[in-house]
Amino acid sequence: MNKKNIREKMLQIRNNIKKEVKNQKDEKITETFIGLLLKNNIKSVLLYASFGSEVDTWRIFQFCLENSIKTAFPKVMGTQLELYWVKDKEELFPGYKSILEPKNGLKAFIEEIDVIAVPGIAFDYKCFRIGYGGGYYDRVLENKKGVAVGLAYEEQIIDEIPIEPHDKRLDLIITDERMISCV
């Protein structure tokens, strides 16, 4: 299957996860992600503003706020993601495709972020992913110093994703059942 077919099929699978099951899965992923932050004494995180059937990031954001972990969110600017430090959900407004993003504020740089939470539609055992097709995260991950972590439901893991030269590998994938490490 090509990326387009995988994207369509996996989005349908993710969208069909029942709400109560999704909530339980989100809780497990959140616990594992927070455990990673605590174990490694993480000081800064890049989160995505979850929407639709994506793995929820709002409990992680709340934890970061309560534990003085600096948190950035992306903003789509043309073909790039700009990153901004955010201290409150009220600083986020509907932006690109109605996804919440910072309007402006103190700019963050990928090189200063310890852990990068990466959304996706499908992931494989080699820590490659298929997103929505814009390449935004592939571009932002080019200069990363921190650990790139894909957040996924177990249903989103497939054997292999067809990769292209621009595709960036993640370091880790956290699902509701396990962690897949590629470091």
UniProtKB/TrEMBL annotation:
Domain of life: Bacteria
Molecular function as annotated in GO: 5-formyltetrahydrofolate cyclo-ligase activity; ATP binding; metal ion binding
Keyword terms of this UniProt record: ATP-binding, Ligase, Magnesium, Metal-binding, Nucleotide-binding
Single GO BP term: tetrahydrofolate interconversion
Cofactors required: Mg(2+)
UniProt binding sites for substrate: E54
EC number: 6.3.3.2
This protein's GO CC annotations: cytoplasm
Xref: InterPro entries: FTHF_cligase, FTHF_cligase-like_sf, NagB/RpiA_transferase-like
Residues bound to ATP: K3, K4, N5, I6, R7, R129, I130, G131, Y132, G133, G134, G135, Y136, Y137
Homology family: Belongs to the 5-formyltetrahydrofolate cyclo-ligase family.
Annotated protein name in UniProt: 5-formyltetrahydrofolate cyclo-ligase
Biological source species: Thermodesulfovibrio yellowstonii (strain ATCC 51303 / DSM 11347 / YP87)
